[in-house]
Sequence to fold (247 residues):
Amino acid sequence: MIVIRSEEEIRDIRKAGEILSRTLKKLRGCIHAGVQTRELDAIAREEIMKHGGYPAFKGYRGFPANICVSLNEAVVHGIPGDRKLKGGDVVSIDMGVRFRDYHADAAFTVAIAPVSETAGRLIDVTAKALDIGIGNAVSGRRVSDISSSIQSYVESNGFSVVRALVGHGIGRELHEEPEIPNYGKPGTGPVLRCGMVLAIEPMVNAGGFEVEALEDGWTVVTKDRRLSAHFEHTIIVCDDKPEIITK
Fold:
């Protein structure tokens, strides 16, 4: 069942998004060569808790960290640890925040100089694909209108969208209906209605769309080990223009 949120519920979701956005902004300023990924995890937790939220990923289905830090060929769900960032790394940060009983979810990708041409284009295309997908998240359209617009833009730029992982509804639970693939035919799937809250998240690979999980049971990497990028926002569906609550 796809839930239409009340104004009271949306207020708490907005607050979760505000805390998340503030935290991601701080993390952006901390990403540089020499930083351990576990340091980013600690910074995120401190910032979230300071503003009255809770790191929604911690313990979720057993996940051991507060945020996901996925490097280079890692698509999502990278576990922070001792690894130090270095020049040329493509770094994807994904995190969720719970405020009271409600959630927000967002992600971004950056590269540490020197940035390869492929990495720079991949990041730009993925960020733009998210904007395009969000632009289709208006009342009266369908979930697949989001999906197909992302796929069309990504593939027109010579990259591929991950098919094994999807965006999702969000609210009282971190993952709710509907699923939002990053590929598909327009005009199909559930109709979007005002008050739906969605986490839209293109995951884009420089090579093929196939992925696989590593032995840690969490980290998902590209099967061909080429680069991947990931961007995500939590949005509220409205009549004319979606509201982005994690921007």
Notes: Residues 140 and 192 are 5 Å apart (CA to CA). Residues 7-28 form the longest helix (22 residues). The chain has a mean pLDDT of 98. The chain has four helices and 15 strands.
